[in-house]
Write a structure and sequence with these properties.
Length: 156
């Protein structure tokens, strides 16, 4: 603790920052805007960004190329969800959960969406996430329902 607050340590770091900046180690061609995950519960943020962030934190660990659900056509990492088909929009489910389910995400029809069905369930054989949960996350379910119902019907 004392070393970090010593004058020589602070001066050394300040000099390093100045030198790195002067000699171009910090490029000036970085993007002016970088999209990143946000607090999914922040209602002042766009709904789509909140959903992408929620899916990233709650689903991407399994729905990845090396995850438990790698077989599924879904990829929920934030950087992979700009393409909404990666979130299951207009994608047919590869599993039978209920006759009324038509797609993983059926735009404008949350009640026909496997995603909502599975995150709403607490039954071991259908719930998502599969592990680490015994209760329904009501706020998450409401967020996903609102998002699905906000999507324009576009599937063929």
């Amino acid at each position: 603790f004392a070393i970090i607050h010593s004058p020589s340590f602070l001066i050394s770091n300040l000099v390093s920052i100045i030198l790195v900046t002067l000699f171009g180690y910090l490029d000036s061609d970085y993007p002016s805007h970088i999209d990143s995950a946000i607090n999914w519960a922040d209602t002042s943020q766009p709904l789509g960004m909140r959903v992408r962030s929620y899916l990233d934190i709650n689903c991407a660990h399994c729905h990845s190329d090396k995850g438990y659900c790698e077989y599924a056509p879904l990829r929920f990492a934030f950087n992979e969800t700009e393409d909404i088909s990666n979130m299951g929009v207009c994608v047919n489910p590869s599993f039978d959960v209920d006759e009324s389910i038509t797609q993983i995400v059926a735009p404008g029809e949350a009640s026909k969406s496997a995603m909502l069905f599975r995150i709403s369930s607490t039954l071991d054989e259908v719930k998502m996430p599969i592990i680490g949960r015994t209760l329904q996350h009501k706020e998450g379910v409401q967020l996903i329902k609102e998002w699905i119902n906000s999507l324009e019907k576009m599937c063929q």
